[in-house]
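lol forgot to send this yesterday, sorry. struct tokens for the thing we talked abt
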């Protein structure tokens, strides 16, 4: 069930995580590591290979 409060919380978490991802990407870029942008930001078995960072 979706309630307005849950939608608001989800949006808030999503924007915070986008900020985290940008900071992590900038840090890796500063270290000379190029990270590809993952088009599917949600974790799922179908997109697992696209978003798992292999180092």
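and heres what i got for the seq, position by position
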């Amino acid at each position: 069930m979706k309630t307005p409060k849950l939608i608001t919380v989800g949006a808030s978490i999503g924007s915070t995580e986008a900020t985290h991802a940008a900071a992590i990407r900038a840090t890796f870029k500063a270290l000379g590591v190029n990270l590809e942008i993952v088009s599917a930001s949600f974790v799922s078995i179908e997109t697992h290979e696209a978003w798992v960072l292999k180092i």
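Residues 4-51 form one domain. anyway ping me if u want another try
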